[in-house]
């Protein structure tokens, strides 16, 4: 019985650990570049959102006096979502507020941020997650 148990546990280790390690290496090899790509895309979206918000303010400031009353008014992620895909926004809001009200309140809180700030935050998070790690080599003599 003991020999059979050792054989089965050894077989289980041989069958599971190397494929899992290989899968983990494959996922890490795909996840890090994907996180860096997501950081780049998020930064581009943040720049476009900032340009979208600054455009009317700059145009108004150049046409009026220095003491203009209209200033910079950032647009939230939620507002962009409502303008770009109103049906998707309504359906998601209805679904999430009925089934997961706490999750929707968290999402609504994040999406209430200005779009350029939210996507800059996403870019920083993805950039940190996708950073290249230094390889540490430890030698024990």
3D architecture notes:
Among the domains are: 33-74 and 114-131; 76-113, no CATH class. The protein contains five helices and no strands. The chain has helices at residues 2-63, 77-84, 86-99, 101-111, 115-129.
Notable features of this structure?
0% strand; 141 residues; single chain; elongated; mainly alpha
Structural class by secondary-structure content: mainly alpha
- Report the radius of gyration as a whole number of Å: 25 Å
> What share of residues is helical?
over 70%
* Succession of helices and strands: HHHHH
Number of strands: 0
Report on the biggest sheet. Answer: none
What is the percentage of strand-forming residues? Answer: under 5%
Average pLDDT score: 80
* Contiguous uncertain segments of 5+ residues: none
Helix segment count?
A: 5
Shape: elongated
Q: Termini, distance in Å?
A: 41 Å
SSE arrangement:
Elements: H1 2-63, H2 77-84, H3 86-99, H4 101-111, H5 115-129
Helix pairs in contact: 1-5, 2-3, 3-4
Summarize, please.
This protein has 141 residues and is mostly helical. Helix content is 78%, strand content 0%.
